[in-house]
């Protein structure tokens, strides 16, 4: 395989296994080994679709039909479940697409919608995790302020803002994403056409900073302050309470999910876009291409892990899902519905463990 000789040669490379670009009279060609994705992607997307659809529909059923009194955490978790459900219902199209060897038999509009739903779900998940984290942070570190800003009406307004911001920010995907003919098949690109690839990279970089880097840093800061508060010894009590232990465990779980699902995808995608504009060997480009393709389904697994976090947040969530008496106070506690009156009389750190997605 020949090496690339100029930055311009790779400016227009878009999601293909056999890449050809030219500078002047010279032609450079890299053949990417992507046979793995025709097994990996259909299988992984299929699993995410089945498991994610079941868990999110169950979560939506609990939110809508079993919970009569919502709090801020419930509101954020419900919107998170809606976002995940919208995404997983689009996955059968991708399963078919990759199983057929990158052949998109559907319309260009449907290709745009599928890619749009992926990025919308990705950043809705990140922003709603941010909202839940800030809400828990206020409940642990500033309980009095939490009584004011943690009200459900504010959570509803914030949720609307999250949806509007995400949809507006991801609407350019509908413009950039397109299809193209390659031999006898149609490719549904997840980037853009060759002539718009440079603009797409700039757009993706802005989204990376605004919708991933900044929320991620805020979440880390919030969880560090919360962990420090939770780990402080309580007067007269030598052991850490069970609620505190559970809260610390849930902080670790949420951070791990965030790091496993979102961080690798954004790192490999950034390298994937950047390396195609540099003078690098085909072996290096093939390696980063492999890493990027592997982390795409990894990012999709947040649609399965989000509902699992709901279950972990309340020990009686599963029992609550089948309970025929949704009005019981103990059932409401299973999803973190804690009346404000309870917070007024308590300054402990149980709030985080009762705050839903801990």
UniProtKB/TrEMBL annotation:
User: What name is this protein filed under?
Assistant: P2Y purinoceptor 2
Q: Does the keyword Glycoprotein apply?
A: no
Pfam families (UniProt xref)? 7tm_1
Q: How does it sit in the membrane?
A: Multi-pass membrane protein
**The G-protein coupled receptors family 1 profile domain covers which part of the protein?**
55-310
What does UniProt list as this organism's lineage?
Eukaryota, Metazoa, Chordata, Craniata, Vertebrata
Q: Which InterPro entries does this entry report, sorted A to Z?
A: GPCR_Rhodpsn, GPCR_Rhodpsn_7TM, P2Y2_rcpt
Keyword tags: Cell membrane, G-protein coupled receptor, Membrane, Receptor, Transducer, Transmembrane, Transmembrane helix
Bilayer-crossing residues are 45-64, 76-98, 118-139, 160-181, 201-226, 247-267
Localization recorded for this chain is: Cell membrane
Family (UniProt) = Belongs to the G-protein coupled receptor 1 family.
- Signal peptide location: none
In its keyword annotation, does this UniProt entry include Transmembrane helix?
yes
- Which PROSITE patterns does the record cross-reference, listed alphabetically? G_PROTEIN_RECEP_F1_1, G_PROTEIN_RECEP_F1_2
Which PANTHER family does the UniProt entry name for this protein? P2Y PURINOCEPTOR 2 (PTHR24231:SF17), PURINOCEPTOR-RELATED G-PROTEIN COUPLED RECEPTOR (PTHR24231)
């Amino acid at each position: 395989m020949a090496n690339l000789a100029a930055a311009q040669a790779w400016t227009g490379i878009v999601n293909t296994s056999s890449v050809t670009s030219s500078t002047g009279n010279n032609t450079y060609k890299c053949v990417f080994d992507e046979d793995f994705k025709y097994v990996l992607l259909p299988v992984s997307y299929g699993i995410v679709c089945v498991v994610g659809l079941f868990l999110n529909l169950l979560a939506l059923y609990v939110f809508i039909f079993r919970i009569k009194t919502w709090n801020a955490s419930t509101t954020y978790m419900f919107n998170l479940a809606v976002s995940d459900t919208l995404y997983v219902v689009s996955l059968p199209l991708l399963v078919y697409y990759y199983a057929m060897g990158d052949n998109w038999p559907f319309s260009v509009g449907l290709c745009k919608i599928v890619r749009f739903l992926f990025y919308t779900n990705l950043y809705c998940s990140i922003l709603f995790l941010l909202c839940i984290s800030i809400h828990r942070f206020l409940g642990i570190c500033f309980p009095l302020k939490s009584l004011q800003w943690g009200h459900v009406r504010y959570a509803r307004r914030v949720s609307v803002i999250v949806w509007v911001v995400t949809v507006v920010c991801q609407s350019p995907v509908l413009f950039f994403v397109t299809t193209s003919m390659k031999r006898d098949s149609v490719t549904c690109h997840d980037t853009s056409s060759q002539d718009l690839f440079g603009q797409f990279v700039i757009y993706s970089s802005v989204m990376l900073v605004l919708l991933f880097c900044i929320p991620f840093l805020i979440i880390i800061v919030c969880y560090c302050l919360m962990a420090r508060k939770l780990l402080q010894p309580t007067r007269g009590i030598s052991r850490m309470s069970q609620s505190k232990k559970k809260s610390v465990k849930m902080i670790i779980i949420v951070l791990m999910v965030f790091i496993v699902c979102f961080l690798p995808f954004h790192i490999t995608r950034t390298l994937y876009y950047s390396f195609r504009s540099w003078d690098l060997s085909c072996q290096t480009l093939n390696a980063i291409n492999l890493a990027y393709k592997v982390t795409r389904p990894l990012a999709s697994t947040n649609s399965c892990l989000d509902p699992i976090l709901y279950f972990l947040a309340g020990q009686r969530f599963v029992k609550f899902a089948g309970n025929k008496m949704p009005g019981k106070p103990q059932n409401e506690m299973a999803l973190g519905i804690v009346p404000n009156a309870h917070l007024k009389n308590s300054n402990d750190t149980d709030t985080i463990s009762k705050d839903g997605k801990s």
